[in-house]
Amino acid sequence: MVDWLREADGAITLTVHVQPAGKRSEVLGLHGDALKIRLAAPAIEGRANAALLEFVAQRLGVPRAAVTLKSGQTSRRKVLLVLAAPVDAVRRLLGP
């Protein structure tokens, strides 16, 4: 198991470090015990948070409603909850 992902009751909890206002949204690798994600959206009026939830949902192949922000609303370090996450979540997040 990796430090940034925890499984419990069919759901996963992700710890991420967000870098907003990039050229494109992508997974950059690890940042300490968090998964580092660059987002194309700026950190203005919740746009980066919305883009993060959409990006993670798309990468995991789950509906957007299955991904929620548990903590870190105004921080770069965030904790996400993903319901009905796929078994290969790590591969999907780290893969191309």
Q: Can you tag this structure with a few keywords?
A:
21% helix; globular; single chain; Conserved Hypothetical Protein Mth637, Chain: A; 96 residues; alpha+beta
Report the radius of gyration as a whole number of Å: 12 Å
Structural class: alpha+beta
Distance between the termini: 20 Å
Work out the strand percent. Answer: 35-45%
Number of domain units: 1
Spell out the helices and strands N to C: EEEEHEEH
Summarize the structure.
21% of the residues lie in helices and 36% in strands. The protein has 2 helices and 6 strands.
How does this structure look, described?
The protein is of the alpha+beta class and 96 residues long. It has a single domain (5-85), classed as YggU-like (Conserved Hypothetical Protein Mth637, Chain: A). The protein is built from two helices and six strands; from the N terminus they run E-E-E-E-H-E-E-H. Strands 1, 2, 3, 4, 5 and 6 form a six-stranded mixed β-sheet that branches.
